[in-house]
Amino acid sequence: MASIKAVGFNAPKFMPVDGCAAAYIDKVSLTANPTAGDTLDFLIPAGAEVYGVSIQGDDLDTNGTPTFAFSVGYRPFKSDSSLSPNATYFAATGQTTLRTGGRLLCAFKPIKFEEDVILSLTVGTAAATFAAGEVIAIVEANTPGPK
After folding, report:
1. What is the rounded CA–CA span in Å between residue 98 and residue 133?
2. Is the whole-model pTM more than 0.90?
3. 7: alpha, beta or left? (left if phi > 0; alpha if psi -120 to 50)
4. Taking the mean position of all CA atoms in its chain, how far away is CA 76?
5. Are 131 and 49 in contact (CB under 8 A)?
6. Beta-bridge mates of residue 118
7. How far is CA 147 from the centre of its chain?
8. Residue 139: how many CB atoms within 10 A of its CB?
9. DSSP states of the chain as a string?
10. How many CB atoms are closer than 10 A to CB 64?
11. Which of 27, 52, 108, 121 could form a disulfide with 136 if both were Cys (CB 3.0 to 4.6 A apart)?
12. Per-residue pLDDT tens for 3-52?
């Protein structure tokens, strides 16, 4: 299982701790077909109260009968965290948006993270005919900061 990190994964994330809204936008450029169990990882900073997640992507599966499927969830950034991962919190298993390209608007209850977490797009089924492209995560959050 590979964890493919977004371009700005290790870059500092702005957290004004004033409750104002912020958008965290990052991308992964795929040049090889990710396999089942691989993850595309985007960082959400501690203190973010996430109320919106969108996944925008190119057509990654050009087959006449495309198979690419994924879920969107989160997992702790630190290995010693007590936070339980949830691979389907933002979008359930079987999402197909990246078969043809477009935008997935995730539906979920807002959630506040007191620590850095990884927004994780988990591949369920690889593309039948892979085409290189980008996957962009757009995370919208209030920024009250961590406790």
Report:
1. 10
2. yes
3. alpha
4. 13
5. no
6. 43, 75
7. 24
8. 23
9. --EEE-TTTTS-----SSS-EEEEEEEEEE-S-PPTT-EEEEEE-TT-EEEEEEEEE---B-SSS---EEEEEEEESSTT--PPPEEEEEEEEEE-GGGT-EEEE-----EE-SS-EEEEEEEEE--SSB--EEEEEEEEEE-----
10. 6
11. 27
12. 999 999 999 887 888 888 999 999 999 999 999 999 999 999 999 999 99
Contacts of 15-19 with CB under 8 Å at 24 or more apart are 15/45, 15/46, 15/47, 15/48, 15/143, 15/145, 16/143, 16/145, 17/47, 17/143, 17/144, 17/145, 18/143, 18/144, 19/142, 19/143, 19/144
CA atoms within 13 A of residue 127's CA, in its CB half-sphere: 22
- The C-alpha atoms of residue 53 and residue 56 are separated, in whole angstroms, by 10
Q: What is the pLDDT of residues 73-108, one digit of tens each?
A: 999 999 999 999 999 999 999 999 999 999 999 999
Structure tokens at 42: 């985007």
The Cβ of residue 114 has, within 10 Å, a number of other Cβ atoms equal to: 13
